[in-house]
Write a structure and sequence with these properties.
Radius of gyration: 17 Å
Number of helices: 5
Order of helices and strands: HHHHH
Strand content: under 5%
Largest sheet: none
Number of domains: 1
Structural class: mainly alpha
Shape: extended
Number of strands: 0
Helix content: 40-55%
Distance between the termini: 39 Å
Length: 104
């Protein structure tokens, strides 16, 4: 690789799957509530606008809202191939990470 950028993650997980893994690792039941997408989209738009109106002095949290209101996928196959590495399953990784943190 010459001057490129890697965006690294394992396989794709939905936001619900991430929440399930975190709850499983913490040994707590998953409590969730469905919300429509439009409030999240509106909030993301307002966050983008607020950041632009302040000339970037206010952080743009719009992208964070967009990511967590839908399923974002990052493909790690290129870095795995280029560096000859294997990634653990992302669901199991979250479960184990939370379990390890809770044990400390």
């Amino acid at each position: 690789m010459n001057g490129g950028v890697y965006n690294v993650a394992g396989g794709s997980l939905s936001v619900r799957e991430m929440a399930m893994a975190l709850a499983e690792g913490a040994h707590v039941p998953l409590r969730s509530m469905w919300t429509p997408a439009w409030p999240w989209s509106a909030a993301a738009g307002l966050a983008h606008l607020a950041s632009r109106m302040t000339g970037g002095r206010m952080p743009d949290y719009g992208r964070t809202l967009e990511v967590f209101s839908e399923n974002a996928t990052v493909d790690a196959s290129r870095i795995a191939r280029d560096l000859a590495v294997e990634f653990r399953d992302p669901y199991r990784g979250l479960v184990e990470s939370v379990g390890d943190s809770a044990a400390k």
